[in-house]
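Internal tracking record. Fields below are filled automatically when a chain is submitted to the structure queue. Please do not edit lines marked as system-generated. If the sequence contains nonstandard residues, flag them in the REMARKS field before resubmitting.
Queue: standard
Priority: normal
Entity type: single polypeptide chain
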Amino acid sequence: MEWSTKRKIQYFSIIVAFLLVFVVFPFYAFIYTPPNCFDGFKNGQETGVDCGGNCRLICSAEALEPQLKWDPRIFRISADTYSLLAYIENPNVTAEAISAPFTFKIYDAQGTLITERSGSTFIPRGKEFALFDGNFSLEGKIPSRVTFDFGEIVWTRSFEVEPEITIQNKALMREETQPRVEATVENKTLKRIQNVELTAIIFDSGGNAIASSRTFVETLEKGEVAQVFFTWPMPFETKSEVCATPVDVVLVVDRSGSMRSLGVNPPQPLTDVKNAAISFVNELSPNDQGALVSFATEATNPINFSLSSNFEKLKEAVNGIDIFSNGIQQTNIGDGLLKAREELNSPRHKGDSSKVMVVLTDGVATHPQDPADTQYPEKYAQEVALGARSDGISIFTIGLGNEINANFLKSIASSTSEFYLAPSARELGQIYGEIATKICRKRPAVIEILTRILP
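SYSTEM-GENERATED OUTPUT FOLLOWS
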């Protein structure tokens, strides 16, 4: 290569190097923007557009959906005031959502949408929490079913350790009138905690949620213990849940001749009595037992049906009660009580169950007789009832019609409030229902309080 050509190449190289160092590189540095999590592009270590990798936002495909622990609930707070509850678990141990959209949908018994309740909520990372929406009216409409769904959730990465909060000394009071839950909440950490949400859920003895309420604690200083309260304006609605304490109950039913005084085919009021008694049996829980004793001049011997949890067979026995046609049938209430007492004290009684008799008659006691004492049939029944009560047996009495001795039936019952007067058979269904409620007090069994520290 000639010397002049080499010189030209050297000069050109110097010029190019000068331009690169003093023009191109500075200009590139001036206009270059490094990849970040907010530029609208998938770049750097991102696994999606501005998400994943080293970004705080987590791509939706990398996060698990929150799970409902059980179907959402709707609770009636007062006459036309309701609240909603969703019990949710976030399975993502490093992902939280600051403002996740959600929707409750409320339907009536025909499947018609009554209303929607929408909003947004904080989803804490890796824990169970309660989403409560309360104190709203349905304007007289009756809810039957509720659904819950999240909208599109924006997940963010979080490794912050949640402060430790403990709940202690939970107690339920005044559940028969205006229920109230008291508890203490303690900050177990060495720093102040703010914006603590607490949601109480009341479960009955069958494990079903029957009520919920929410409260807030604005600030908990380090190591502070605070008392919290949850209240409801009316008793909880437990509907047909199981009894908190099992019951052994004997139905004692009058089958004397007067039980067909209103009709022979079918015998009335006996037929209505049977139907009401069967509705009572339907209220018993699987842990209960039932038996049947019918009486006229004497009680059936053996009794119509012994203590058992086979309620279908018990209802068959109730349907099978018949009025004997051979001679005049007297009313031996005392013998009915005696046979029921013997059954409740028999080996068939379960030791952890309450003992109950429910006695129905449409007349006065006329047997057994003592020529020297016209009041002997009642005195005999009262003596048997006294012995039964001393055995821990609760006695409910029902007087049907206008031919009964109310004072006598009150004296047999465990108390005057355990006596019921039914002017006609139409009232029997309601009376048996009230007795079923009394003997099977459906008390809440579990109080659970869930916490969230809101951002």
